[in-house]
């Protein structure tokens, strides 16, 4: 027996005004994983074109984040792995045959032109979004180029090379004692869960397809270990889950997390492969069913970093992320698609809606009730709002004269700092961020002390697992 499909209640916009910072780099759509590969960064450019043509730019600040540096990536990833990513290219990849095997770069995670720059854009947006949240310069930060949740400390996985989410959470932990990570991608958020599996500083919560499906992790019994026991929440789902059914499990679980864990910041991964009709997905969510999760998380009023993720039917991903951007700035957009650079993608009806299909929902009421009961029982065993000894973050010091650019930084940014700062895109569209200044994202002095030893020590304990092969399959 399965839940009957039923329409979702209309989404009601909150009257609460929240400042939104939106991060976009026009270069992101230029990268391609290769002919026939399902991951297409072009979908981010399509979403941005819709966002602009709906006029949503009038209700938020749009920035081009500084790309993440090798040093910043190494706050989570190993030096050896990041160095490999920065050096390997399609032209020299034969010289890195052993490294490609070691770091799981090859089939699902191919070497392509501009690979490191693509990773830098994704990581930079999430880190800088977190930095602006920390400084109180926005209430919500959006980075649709982020959400690459499968990347491991020393290994690519599931189309993901650098885990921008972990980097963003580490930035948030400099100011926040507790962060909750919520993942609505159809695939388990294994890379983020693994990074914080032994700490109570971060609670990870993933709703995903489980059973003969990539990455093969995320069963109900995976709840964390050591200090992190019961701080990893997994809700395994079956094929065909629809809007009403998803809402019936998502909202009670998130409510319980907010009541028991009392996070002070949220990271929400909005993978679009949980939408109906996705090329690699198996769920049956409509655009509004997916967006209901975003609206519900927003209603708690916490500092929130919103990132992208999977999604392999490009027109539906662009539709949904645009609609969700509207919800985040307090505006419902649609139903007609405005004329934009990619208008022909949305035919024949040129409507914003992503509709569910008539696929069977394999999630019975009994099954979901059993999973939900177990998840809520595990949550009740956590300490109520665990306390964390925090180190005071020093006030910003007076600005110093900028240091001369190193050759490495010039190569990475394609020019000097002055050239980068002047590289502003179309007037009225977006501006380069100020990168948060001293004490912000670029200031990583004594980073371990500011974050607190708990998380960084927990991450270091995973060193011995770097060579563990990833589960095969598609993300």
Automatic annotation (TrEMBL):
<dbReference type="GO" id="GO:0051321">
    <property type="term" value="P:meiotic cell cycle"/>
</dbReference>
<feature type="compositionally biased region" description="Basic and acidic residues">
    <location>
        <begin position="438"/>
        <end position="451"/>
    </location>
</feature>
<keyword id="KW-0804">Transcription</keyword>
<dbReference type="GO" id="GO:0016239">
    <property type="term" value="P:positive regulation of macroautophagy"/>
</dbReference>
<dbReference type="GO" id="GO:0003713">
    <property type="term" value="F:transcription coactivator activity"/>
</dbReference>
<dbReference type="GO" id="GO:0030174">
    <property type="term" value="P:regulation of DNA-templated DNA replication initiation"/>
</dbReference>
<feature type="region of interest" description="Disordered">
    <location>
        <begin position="382"/>
        <end position="475"/>
    </location>
</feature>
<dbReference type="GO" id="GO:0070210">
    <property type="term" value="C:Rpd3L-Expanded complex"/>
</dbReference>
<dbReference type="GO" id="GO:0061188">
    <property type="term" value="P:negative regulation of rDNA heterochromatin formation"/>
</dbReference>
<comment type="similarity">
    <text>Belongs to the histone deacetylase family. HD Type 1 subfamily.</text>
</comment>
<dbReference type="GO" id="GO:0045128">
    <property type="term" value="P:negative regulation of reciprocal meiotic recombination"/>
</dbReference>
<dbReference type="GO" id="GO:0061186">
    <property type="term" value="P:negative regulation of silent mating-type cassette heterochromatin formation"/>
</dbReference>
<dbReference type="InterPro" id="IPR023696">
    <property type="entry name" value="Ureohydrolase_dom_sf"/>
</dbReference>
<dbReference type="InterPro" id="IPR037138">
    <property type="entry name" value="His_deacetylse_dom_sf"/>
</dbReference>
<keyword id="KW-0678">Repressor</keyword>
<feature type="binding site">
    <location>
        <position position="312"/>
    </location>
    <ligand>
        <name>substrate</name>
    </ligand>
</feature>
<feature type="binding site">
    <location>
        <position position="273"/>
    </location>
    <ligand>
        <name>a divalent metal cation</name>
    </ligand>
</feature>
<feature type="domain" description="Histone deacetylase">
    <location>
        <begin position="37"/>
        <end position="325"/>
    </location>
</feature>
<feature type="compositionally biased region" description="Acidic residues">
    <location>
        <begin position="458"/>
        <end position="468"/>
    </location>
</feature>
<keyword id="KW-0479">Metal-binding</keyword>
<feature type="binding site">
    <location>
        <position position="158"/>
    </location>
    <ligand>
        <name>substrate</name>
    </ligand>
</feature>
<dbReference type="GO" id="GO:0000082">
    <property type="term" value="P:G1/S transition of mitotic cell cycle"/>
</dbReference>
<dbReference type="GO" id="GO:0046872">
    <property type="term" value="F:metal ion binding"/>
</dbReference>
<keyword id="KW-0805">Transcription regulation</keyword>
<dbReference type="InterPro" id="IPR003084">
    <property type="entry name" value="HDAC_I/II"/>
</dbReference>
<dbReference type="GO" id="GO:0006995">
    <property type="term" value="P:cellular response to nitrogen starvation"/>
</dbReference>
<dbReference type="GO" id="GO:0000086">
    <property type="term" value="P:G2/M transition of mitotic cell cycle"/>
</dbReference>
<dbReference type="GO" id="GO:0070211">
    <property type="term" value="C:Snt2C complex"/>
</dbReference>
<feature type="compositionally biased region" description="Acidic residues">
    <location>
        <begin position="398"/>
        <end position="408"/>
    </location>
</feature>
<dbReference type="GO" id="GO:0070550">
    <property type="term" value="P:rDNA chromatin condensation"/>
</dbReference>
<dbReference type="GO" id="GO:0034399">
    <property type="term" value="C:nuclear periphery"/>
</dbReference>
<dbReference type="GO" id="GO:0006368">
    <property type="term" value="P:transcription elongation by RNA polymerase II"/>
</dbReference>
<dbReference type="GO" id="GO:0045944">
    <property type="term" value="P:positive regulation of transcription by RNA polymerase II"/>
</dbReference>
<dbReference type="GO" id="GO:0032221">
    <property type="term" value="C:Rpd3S complex"/>
</dbReference>
<protein>
    <recommendedName>
        <fullName>Histone deacetylase</fullName>
        <ecNumber>3.5.1.98</ecNumber>
    </recommendedName>
</protein>
<dbReference type="GO" id="GO:0000122">
    <property type="term" value="P:negative regulation of transcription by RNA polymerase II"/>
</dbReference>
<feature type="binding site">
    <location>
        <position position="108"/>
    </location>
    <ligand>
        <name>substrate</name>
    </ligand>
</feature>
<dbReference type="GO" id="GO:0003714">
    <property type="term" value="F:transcription corepressor activity"/>
</dbReference>
<dbReference type="GO" id="GO:0033698">
    <property type="term" value="C:Rpd3L complex"/>
</dbReference>
<keyword id="KW-0378">Hydrolase</keyword>
<dbReference type="InterPro" id="IPR000286">
    <property type="entry name" value="HDACs"/>
</dbReference>
<feature type="binding site">
    <location>
        <position position="185"/>
    </location>
    <ligand>
        <name>a divalent metal cation</name>
    </ligand>
</feature>
């Amino acid at each position: 027996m399965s839940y009957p499909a039923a329409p979702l209640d209309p989404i009601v916009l909150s009257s609460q005004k929240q400042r939104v910072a939106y991060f976009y780099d026009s270069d992101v759509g230029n990268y391609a994983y290769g002919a026939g590969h399902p991951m297409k960064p072009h979908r981010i450019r399509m979403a941005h074109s819709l966002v602009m043509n709906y006029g949503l730019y009038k209700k938020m600040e749009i920035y081009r984040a500084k790309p993440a540096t090798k040093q910043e990536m190494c706050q989570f990833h190993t030096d050896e792995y990041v160095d490999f990513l920065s050096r390997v290219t399609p032209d020299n990849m034969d010289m890195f045959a052993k490294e490609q095997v070691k770091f799981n770069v090859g089939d699902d995670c191919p070497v392509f032109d501009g690979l490191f720059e693509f990773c830098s854009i994704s990581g930079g947006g999430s880190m800088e979004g977190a930095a602006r949240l920390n400084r109180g310069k926005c209430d919500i930060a959006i980075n649709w180029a982020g959400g690459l949740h499968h990347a491991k400390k020393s290994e690519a996985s599931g189309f993901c090379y650098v885990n921008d989410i972990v980097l963003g959470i580490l930035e948030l932990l400099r100011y926040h004692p507790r962060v909750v990570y919520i993942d609505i991608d159809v695939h388990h958020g294994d890379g983020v869960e693994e990074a914080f599996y032994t700490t109570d500083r971060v609670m990870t919560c993933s709703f995903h397809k489980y059973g003969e499906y990539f990455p093969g992790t995320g069963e109900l019994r995976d709840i964390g270990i050591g200090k992190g026991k019961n701080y990893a929440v997994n809700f395994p789902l079956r094929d065909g889950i629809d809007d009403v059914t998803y809402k019936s499990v998502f909202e009670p679980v998130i409510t319980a997390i907010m009541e028991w864990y009392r996070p002070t910041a949220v990271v929400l991964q909005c993978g679009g492969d949980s939408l109906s009709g996705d090329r690699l997905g198996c769920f049956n969510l409509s655009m509004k069913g997916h967006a209901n999760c975003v609206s519900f998380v927003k209603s708690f009023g916490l500092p929130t970093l919103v990132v992208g993720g999977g999604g392999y039917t490009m027109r539906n991903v662009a539709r949904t992320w645009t609609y969700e951007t509207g919800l985040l700035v307090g505006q419902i957009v649609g139903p007609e698609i405005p004329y934009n650079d990619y208008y022909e993608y949305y035919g024949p009806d040129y409507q914003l809606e992503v509709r569910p299909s008539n696929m069977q929902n394999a999630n019975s009421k009994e099954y979901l009730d059993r999973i939900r009961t177990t998840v809520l029982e595990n949550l009740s065993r956590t300490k109520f709002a665990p306390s964390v000894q925090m180190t005071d973050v020093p006030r910003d010091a007076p600005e110093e004269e900028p240091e001369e650019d190193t050759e490495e930084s010039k190569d990475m940014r394609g020019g000097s700092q002055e050239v980068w700062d002047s590289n502003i895109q179309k007037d009225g569209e977006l501006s380069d961020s100020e990168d948060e200044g001293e004490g912000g994202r670029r200031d990583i002095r004594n980073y371990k002390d500011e974050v607190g030893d708990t998380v960084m020590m927990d991450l270091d304990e995973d060193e011995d697992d770097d060579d563990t092969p990833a589960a095969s399959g598609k993300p």
